Amino acid sequence: MNGIRVIPQKYFRILLPVLAFIVLGTMPRYLPPYGVVVLGNVFMYTVLAVSWNVFCAPTNYMSLATAAFFGVGVYTSAILQELPLPVVILVAGSLSFLVGLMVGTITLRLRGMYFAIFTFGLSELFRHAMIWYEANITRTVGRWLPAETPETVYYYMLVVLAITLLVTYLIRRSKYGLALHSIGQNEEAAAHLGINLNAVKIITFAITCFFMGATGAVMATRWSYVDPSIAFAPFRSFYIIIMVLLGGIDSIIYGPISGAIVITLLSDVALVDYPRQTMLLFGIILVVVISFLPNGLMGIVERIRRGKEVTALSG
Amino acid sequence: MLVKFLDIGIAGLTMGGLYALIALGLNLQWGVTRVLNVSHGEFLMLGAYSAFFLYSLFGISPLLSLVICAPVFLGIGCLLHRTLFRHLLKTTKSMAGYEIASLLAAYGLLFILSNSAALGFGPRPRALAYLTQSLTFFGATFALNRLVALGISIGVCIIVYLLLGRTRLGKAIRAAAQDVNTAQLMGVNIHQVLTISFGLGAMLAAMGGSLLSMLFWVEPFMGFRYLIVAFIVVVLGGMGNIVGSLIGGIILGLVGSITTSFQAGLGMIAFYTVFIVILLVRPTGILGKLET
Lengths: 315, 292
Hints:
The complex is a heterodimer. Chain A is an all-alpha fold. Chain A contains 14 helices and 2 strands; from the N terminus they run H-H-H-H-H-E-H-H-H-H-E-H-H-H-H-H. The interface of A and B includes residues 128, 129, 241 and 284 of A.
């Protein structure tokens, strides 16, 4: 199918993402304003889905606390609104990193389902505590912050996305990526191989939290109004999982990206006008993907490619 | 002082009884079939709507609709497990994989059921008034329906306890909860047992919903709150532990009524705090066995 390769595969692998980013970087020039907003949303969910996938897919720890770390970023951005945006993003990411470090330290010894429920309970605790704090201590629910233009948000989001993808790629190639995989396969065996289970799990978890917080900080400047129910909305944690599953959980980068694109576009097109129907559709997608497409969209792509190879070999 | 004390105690006990009933259903599903059924609250919501419509359209009392709903939802639950979850059990490679897949499938069901209900029944909250005569007990006043709800939920819990403890089916269910593979080797028809356990869980949720319809508003998204409560009770009492669920339910009901008597907004925060502390200090629950 490829014929003779003029460019070696390894250059191709670097060139393609660079090209993609150059194209994306010039997009706001051609796209209508609404398109820029939608693409910004796609970037946001892609960052969340990719960083969720880095830790959770290989290790089989289902984190439902994405909303919490995202919300930490959103609130940091709202509180530190006087500072320049890059500083805010870094601070928000670092705070999220610290919270992730703490959460990881106390929870990653819980196994399987208990971890999933714990992280869910934690993000709900954040939300309710924040609602209670605002209602009873500050006596003002929600905060306003100066809105950035969609282009600014777009470019910041793009940078965060690029860094997330780069770090994801590096983690996956490094021995930490391998260590994560072996933890997911068999924790005892991984420990016997000399992997410091807790250190690897906690650090990777916290790194993924950094990106979730950074995304939250950027998005807050576009929403310009935040309250606990927006910042810590629990549906966001589940959205991410639907995206990753739809895209294909085994594919570290392309799976979450394709899932994020499909779900974000769907929700941007239909969620405002038909919220119930869209949510119903998401439910159906989830059940169908789980039952019949365990490897998601990338699984289909893979199957088509394999099929071609097989026919090429036999033919 | 005494009156306030009694008020808080009675409110806590009635809610606690209901929490125990709802949690018992989740406990059967999670503890026996390993399906962390996050759509449990939606079955409760459907049960509540059934009671509401049976009452408002046909004038059937919620207590009678309890008896009507029970076998219907038992059937629905069994059917769901027979089709969806058994398919997942067959297609996933490991038990851990099955737990994750079934959790996500149940989450899809949550979306499907609650949004279908919102489309079909409308988002408007509905309520029915039944047995609202007030009773006075040492100066504390409460509605008769609360007492009835408490009595029925405790009664159903005891029936389930006897079913599990004294019958052959109960023995099979307990065996499956301990170890599915060994139970199968001992000649337990494991698929049947898992299906029935899941059906019983759905049935208990619907019964809890019918009882709740007498006390609170019925709306399409009411289920989620009770799902959370049921989780916390199951974790508090220990997974697979019936008595633990009963005690955990009462404890959580009292915690809720005590904190809300101080400040209304603190109820959910108190629940989550209990939940997180229990998971950290004793993840197997107060009555659960230690790590096996």
